[in-house]
Amino acid sequence: MDFGQELGLDPERLAADADFLFERMRRLHELPETVARAESKDGWVSVEYGSVSGVRGLHLDPRAMRMGSAELAETVLVLIHQARARAEADERGAAEELLGAGLLADGQLAAERLRTATGTLQENLERAGAAIDRVRALLRP
Question: What is this structure's pTM?
Fold first, then answer.
């Protein structure tokens, strides 16, 4: 019996695709933390931000202390947001490179692909169950 024809799929190809996806997902969790840095135009304030750990470092040049407290606070917050955005973009880029470009950039695309794959898998499992029942019926005396 040709299971590929009977089930409407190639079981070896399906297994290989699943192995490929799971290996990529495993490797995604092994990626090192992405770290980005942002610095004020004058170089007096800099922030280092890790995609997992958050703010990892804050450097204030002694000249930055001449700034008013509100201006200094605003500068620090702006730099934190810039560094975070860079770290997240870099991490997203690394994940897209590993998993496939465009999949993570568009949440709806990823969700739709997941729904499609789940539906296809459900259909294939139902076909496989029916095929197994037919094989059992053929093998019974």
Answer: 0.55
